[in-house]
Amino acid sequence: MSTEAQEGIKQKAYAEAMRYMENAKEVLKKAKKEDNFYGDSKYVRMACGTAYNGVLIALDAYLLLKDVAMPQKKRRSIEFYTSNVAQLDKKLLNYLNSVYQVLHLSGYYDGICDVRVVKIGFENAEQIIGKIKPKPVQEAAQELPQSRPSLLRRIYMLFA
């Protein structure tokens, strides 16, 4: 897969995953904090489920970029993700396990209302999504070969 194709996948998946995270944060605001707890577990559940789905979008892109064969069925199990991530990145696996426990099980299914726990789940979700963050345009243009400037590099040089 070419570098341009990889960057295209990263840009699309990162934007979508971040959109999910932003939506989750907006929903979480409706839960209304009272001291260290949210007042309405319905909104906490919705927010945690939305954030977890954003993580799955990022993980799908991450595994695709690492040439992991994706199963035919649309719904993939947590075992699929953990076994493949375990082979690629142990630190990412720790974040995935945390996100699964906090956002999916405790947040979405159980409706945990502890602000600190949900915050940790969201922070770990953002760490996973950050793995597919595309390079800024400036950085990508600097990686172009120096011998013969391409059209993109020349355009970049005009505006730099």
Structure description:
- By secondary structure, the protein is mostly helical.
- It has one domain (3-134): Nucleotidyltransferases  domain 2 (Four Helix Bundle (Hemerythrin (Met), subunit A), Up-down Bundle).
- It is 71% helix and 2% strand.
- The chain has 7 helices and 2 strands.
- Strands 1-2 form a two-stranded antiparallel ribbon.
- A hairpin with a 2-residue loop joins strand 1 and strand 2 (37-38).
- Helix 1 packs antiparallel against helix 2 (41-65), helix 3 (78-88) packs antiparallel against helix 4 (90-109) and helix 4 crosses helix 5.
- The longest helix is centred in the first third of the chain and has 27 residues, at 3-29.
- The protein is globular and about 55 Å long.
- It starts with a helix and ends with a helix.
- The mean pLDDT is 89.
